[in-house]
Design goal:
Elements (H helix, E strand, L loop, with lengths): L1 H15 L5 E5 L2 E4 H24 L3 H26 L1 H6 L14 H19 L3 H19 L1 H6 L13 E2 L14 E2 L2 H23 L6 H23 L9 E2 L2 E2 H21 L12
Helix pairs in contact: 2-3, 2-6, 3-5, 6-8, 6-9, 8-9, 9-10
Length: 287
C-alpha cells in the first residue's frame, strides 16, 4: 500500500518541481547552478581525455595544454553561434551578450570552434589531428552528458508540450508566447544527456574491441571521431523536431538540423574512408 502512495508523490514532485537557478549568494556574488554544472562537465571531460591518451599514445600534458585552448575557444564559439542564431534579441538586449550564466551556449558552435582549434594545434605541434580528436570526442560526450543538466536549472531548450509522466514543469515566464496555456514540456535536455551517455558507452566499448584488431592508431582515431559525429548529428537532427525555441530555418529544416545533417554525413564519410585504409601502410602505428 505504501508504494502507490510513494509513486504518486514522486510523480507529483518530478512533474511540478521548479529548479532554482542560483546555488547560493555571497554578497554581490551569485553562483548559478548552470555555471557549476559547466565547470563539472569541463573538468570531467578533461580528465577523460587525459585518460584516453594512453590508448592513442599521446603525452597527457599535450591534452592538458590543448584543453585550455579548447575551453576558451569552445565557449567563445558556442556563444557566438548562439548569438548569431538569435541576433535580433541580442541587438535589443546587448547587456545579455556576456551573461552566459543565463544560458545560451550552442553545442554546434563549440564543436566547430573545437575542431578548428584542434586542427591548428595539431598542425603547429606536428601531431596527428585524428589522434587528438579521438581523445577529445568521447570526452565531449561526457561533457554533454553532464552539461545538459544546466539547461534544466535554467528552464531552457525544452521541447513541445507533453502529458507524458516525465514531462517537466516550466514556469510561465520561460514559456514561448504560443505555449503559455501549457505547463509541462518534453525534457529535451534529458534526452540529449541520455543519448550522449549511451554514445559514450558505445564508443568506449568500440575502443576496447577494435584495439585488439589489426588496425592503425590513425584508423582507430578516425573511427572514434566518426562515431561521435554520427551519434551527435543523428540525435540533434531528430530532437530538433520537438524543440520550441526560435531559430532560423533553411528550407523545411531548422538551422541546427542542417548542421546536424552535415555532421552525420561527415561522420559517415570519415568512417568509410577509415575502413578503406591500407593496413600495411600504417603498420608503424598499430593500435
Amino acid at each position: 500500500m505504501l508504494w502507490p502512495c510513494y509513486d504518486g508523490v514522486m510523480n507529483y514532485w518530478l512533474g511540478n518541481f521548479t529548479p532554482p537557478s542560483i546555488l547560493f549568494v555571497l554578497g554581490p556574488l551569485q553562483i548559478h547552478y548552470y555555471g557549476l554544472i559547466m565547470v563539472l562537465a569541463i573538468s570531467a571531460s578533461v580528465y577523460l581525455a587525459m585518460k584516453l591518451t594512453r590508448i592513442f599514445r599521446i603525452e597527457s600534458v599535450t591534452i592538458l595544454d590543448l584543453s585550455f585552448w579548447l575551453i576558451v575557444n569552445g565557449l567563445l564559439g558556442a556563444r557566438l553561434y548562439h548569438v548569431g542564431l538569435e541576433l535580433p534579441y541580442y541587438l535589443s538586449h546587448p547587456q545579455e551578450l556576456i551573461m552566459i550564466w543565463h544560458g545560451g551556449l550552442a553545442i554546434h558552435g563549440a564543436v566547430l570552434a573545437g575542431a578548428l582549434t584542434i586542427w591548428y594545434y595539431a598542425r603547429t605541434k606536428r601531431i596527428s589531428f585524428w589522434l587528438l580528436t579521438a581523445c577529445v570526442a568521447p570526452a565531449l560526450l561526457l561533457g554533454q552528458t553532464i552539461g545538459r543538466w544546466g539547461n534544466y536549472f535554467n528552464q531552457e531548450l525544452f521541447g513541445l508540450p507533453t502529458n507524458l509522466p516525465w514531462g517537466i514543469f516550466i514556469e510561465a515566464r520561460y514559456r514561448p508566447e504560443a505555449y503559455l496555456a501549457y505547463s509541462h514540456f518534453h525534457p529535451t535536455f534529458l534526452y540529449e544527456s541520455l543519448t550522449a551517455m549511451t554514445g559514450l558507452v558505445i564508443i568506449m566499448l568500440g575502443l576496447k574491441y577494435w584495439r585488439s584488431k589489426p588496425i592503425s592508431l590513425i584508423q582507430l582515431g578516425q573511427g572514434t571521431t566518426a562515431w561521435y559525429l554520427i551519434i551527435f548529428g543523428l540525435y540533434r537532427f531528430l530532437v530538433e523536431f520537438i524543440k520550441v525555441d526560435i531559430t532560423p530555418s533553411l528550407g523545411i529544416f531548422r538551422w541546427p538540423q542542417v548542421i546536424s545533417l552535415v555532421s552525420l554525413a561527415l561522420g559517415l564519410v570519415i568512417l568509410v574512408r577509415a575502413g578503406r585504409k591500407d593496413y600495411k601502410n600504417n603498420s608503424d602505428q598499430k593500435a
